[in-house]
C-alpha cells in the first residue's frame, strides 16, 4: 500500500505568524481529502458481497476445455466496501458541476438540467435503433426539427446527422467533397490546412486519402490570404480538392478574410470545409454559409450544450451547402411536400432524383439522446437567446484576456478582441517556469488546468475558454488564481516546479507514464 502523501501540505499558522507543519495523519486522509488505495489493495482473501451456489462440475459438451483452472484475479470486497471505494474515488474527480473547465477549443460548459429531463421522456429514452420507422414518427420529426434549426443557423442547404463526433464529422465533410470531385471526373489529391486550424484537421484529411499542405499564418494569428491565393493562382489549384479552415480559429480569432478565402478556393474549383468546433462564438450572429463555406461539422456539446462525449457516442452533425448536399451520407431526414418528415435509406433513393450519397458513416441515424438535448436547448433559447450565447462567450473570453494580459504574455492581444477563447504563453513568467508549472499550480488552486501547449503556432501556449455559462464572480476567482500563479512564477517561487502539492498524488513523470504505463495490477 502506498505511504500517505504528506509533502507540501499547508502548514498551520500560529498567532505570531510562524508556520508550523501539521502532523501527518495515520490514515493518510486529510479531513475529507481522502487517500484512496487501489481496489486490489483494499481486497481481502475470500471477501465477497454475494453468496453463490457451488458451480456444477459436470462437463458441458464442447465447453469443458474452457473451464477455469484457477479463480479469476478479482478483488474480494463486500458491497459496502465497493460502493465506498468508488464514491471516494468520485470525490477526486473534477467536474463541470464543481467548477469551470477552462479548456480552450473544448467548450466544456454547463448542461442545463431541462435538457436532461426532456431526453428522459418516454418515447425518447426508450427508443431502439432497430424499431420499424413507422413506429417512431415523433422521433423522426424531432430529428427533422433539429436539422431545420441547424440549416437555418448556418445558412446551409443540407445536413448529415449520423456522424458521432467532431472528427467523425470532419471525415464526413471530406468524403462528401471527395464524392463531388469524383462526380466531376477530376483528380484533386490535395487539401490545404492553415497552421491555425484544429489539429484533427490535417489528420482527418490524411485519413480520407488526401495529401495535406500547410498554409501559414500571419503575425496576427490569422490565415495568410496572400499565401493561399498564391498557391491557387494561375491554374496551380487544379490539384486542390479544398481547404479546411477553423473559424473562429484556435488562436481565438475570427478569420476576417473568410469570404475572400472561399472565393479563391471556389474559383480554383475546390470546396471550403469549416471546422465548426467554435461555432458557439458566432451562433446566431454569423451564418457560415454566407461566408462561402460548403461543409461544416458542429459539435453539439460545444455549441448546444449536450454532455461532452455524450456518455458514450457524441454527435457531430455536418451541414452542407447546395454544392455538396446531394452527397450527404445515408440515412438522412427529408420532408415531403406535405411537410411530413421521413427517414431516407437505400431503398428510398429511387424516388429522390439527384441524391447521390457517398455511403454511410454509421449503422444508424445518430445519437438520439444528443439530438433531443440539443433541440431542447435551441427551443428554450430561441434565435435571440442563441445570439446571446455567442455574445456572452465572447464577452467572457475578452474579460479573461484583458484581466490577465498585464501579467501573462498574450501574443495576439493587439490583433483586436478575441472570440471565445484567450491565448497566453509562458514567455514572460521568469527563468525556468513553464506552462506546465502553471497548469499544475492551478490544480492546487482547485481548478482544472487550461489547454496547454496548443495551438502549436505559439510556444508554451495556454489556451483558456471560459464559455458563456460562467458568471463574473466565478471568472474573478479563476483570474485571481492565475494572477497569483504568475506573481509566484516571476518571484522565483520554487514550489511551482513541484506542484501540485494538495492532491492525493504529486507530479508524475508524464513522459514515462505515457511510454511505460502500468495498466495491469500485479500483487
Automatic annotation (TrEMBL):
Keywords: Aminotransferase, Oxidoreductase, Pyridoxal phosphate, Transferase. The keyword Repeat does not apply. InterPro entries: Aminotrans_V_dom (IPR000192), GDC-P_C (IPR049316), GDC_P (IPR020581), PyrdxlP-dep_Trfase (IPR015424), PyrdxlP-dep_Trfase_major (IPR015421), PyrdxlP-dep_Trfase_small (IPR015422). Residues 1-28 are annotated as: Disordered. GO terms for molecular function: transaminase activity. Pfam families: Aminotran_5, GcvP2_C. Residues 186-309 form the Aminotransferase class V domain. Residues 391-488 form the Glycine dehydrogenase C-terminal domain. It comes from the Bacteria. It catalyses: N(6)-[(R)-lipoyl]-L-lysyl-[glycine-cleavage complex H protein] + glycine + H(+) = N(6)-[(R)-S(8)-aminomethyldihydrolipoyl]-L-lysyl-[glycine-cleavage complex H protein] + CO2. Its EC number is 1.4.4.2. The glycine cleavage system catalyzes the degradation of glycine. The P protein binds the alpha-amino group of glycine through its pyridoxal phosphate cofactor; CO(2) is released and the remaining methylamine moiety is then transferred to the lipoamide cofactor of the H protein. This is glycine dehydrogenase (aminomethyl-transferring). It comes from Novosphingobium ovatum. The lineage of its organism: Bacteria, Pseudomonadati, Pseudomonadota, Alphaproteobacteria, Sphingomonadales.
